[in-house]
Automatic annotation (TrEMBL):
<dbReference type="Pfam" id="PF13197">
    <property type="entry name" value="DUF4013"/>
</dbReference>
<dbReference type="InterPro" id="IPR025098">
    <property type="entry name" value="DUF4013"/>
</dbReference>
<protein>
    <submittedName>
        <fullName>DUF4013 domain-containing protein</fullName>
    </submittedName>
</protein>
<feature type="transmembrane region" description="Helical">
    <location>
        <begin position="166"/>
        <end position="184"/>
    </location>
</feature>
<keyword id="KW-1133">Transmembrane helix</keyword>
<keyword id="KW-0812">Transmembrane</keyword>
<feature type="transmembrane region" description="Helical">
    <location>
        <begin position="74"/>
        <end position="100"/>
    </location>
</feature>
<feature type="transmembrane region" description="Helical">
    <location>
        <begin position="20"/>
        <end position="46"/>
    </location>
</feature>
<feature type="transmembrane region" description="Helical">
    <location>
        <begin position="112"/>
        <end position="137"/>
    </location>
</feature>
<keyword id="KW-0472">Membrane</keyword>
<feature type="transmembrane region" description="Helical">
    <location>
        <begin position="190"/>
        <end position="210"/>
    </location>
</feature>
Length: 234
């Protein structure tokens, strides 16, 4: 799966153009709209691969549609990220307040809050990283924003072995990217720019993995894009 996923983007005759555009958009993702377009592209990879199209990666063409689609994807991600973000914020506020209290008891309490809150936040972010792809897959399949929060549709995916395997593959790809990015960033500025291009390529690879996994877990009606057997692989 990892090898096939890594080669997916290169099955396109103009894959270099796609990587060039995707990398540049990633570089300027701090402007938000480029980030929305990249998210829209990745959702397009979800749709293509979940419906069996593994040899024709999407292209950057309808920019407006990609941006709107990506914005919806970011809304879903934002909502899922609220809980760990709130916990992290509370950890810093109460933890550092305790440390700054000037008393030994306050410092001890603040330290415990920072430690416990930090571990809890890390666990929550890991949970979000596990659940979010399933939410985005469900949104990509239906086109409805609310589908990203449809517990009844998402939960069966989370307990499916194929999905667990996909998450493990995604972690491997993420760790590999982290190592490569770390090496590239030895070179100031240019390394960060190169990391953006590599990051886009890895993101497409991961999107392919999840899209193909969705196809394993569901029997998809290619004609209308609807899943007709949600627990086929469970």
């Amino acid at each position: 799966m990892l090898t096939t996923a890594f080669e997916y983007l290169r099955t396109s005759t103009d894959w270099e153009r796609t990587v060039l555009i995707g990398g540049l958009l990633t570089v300027f993702s701090f402007l938000l709209i480029p980030a929305f377009v990249v998210m829209g592209y990745l959702l397009g990879v979800f749709r293509a691969t979940m419906h069996g199209d593994t040899e024709r990666p999407p292209v950057f063409d309808d920019w407006g549609a990609l941006a709107v689609d990506g914005l919806k994807g970011y809304v879903i991600a934002f909502v899922y990220g609220l809980v760990p973000a709130v916990v992290l914020g509370g950890t810093f506020v109460f933890g550092f307040a305790g440390l700054a209290s000037g008393s030994d008891a306050g410092a001890l309490t603040g330290g415990l809050v920072l430690l416990t809150g930090g571990l809890l936040t890390a666990g929550l972010w890991l949970a979000v990283a596990y659940v979010l792809p399933a939410a985005l897959l469900n949104y990509a399949e239906t086109g409805r924003l609310g589908a990203g929060f449809a517990v009844g549709d998402i939960t069966p995916m989370l307990t499916n072995r194929a999905y667990m395997r996909a998450f493990a593959y995604a972690l491997v790809a993420g760790v590999a990217f982290g190592v490569v990015a770390g090496l590239l960033n030895i070179v100031p500025v240019l390394g960060a720019i190169a990391s953006a291009f590599v990051g886009f390529y890895v993101a497409v690879t991961v999107a392919y993995i999840y899209g193909r996994t969705y196809a394993e877990m569901h029997v998809v009606d290619v004609a209308d894009g609807n899943a007709i057997d949600e627990n086929a692989a469970i």
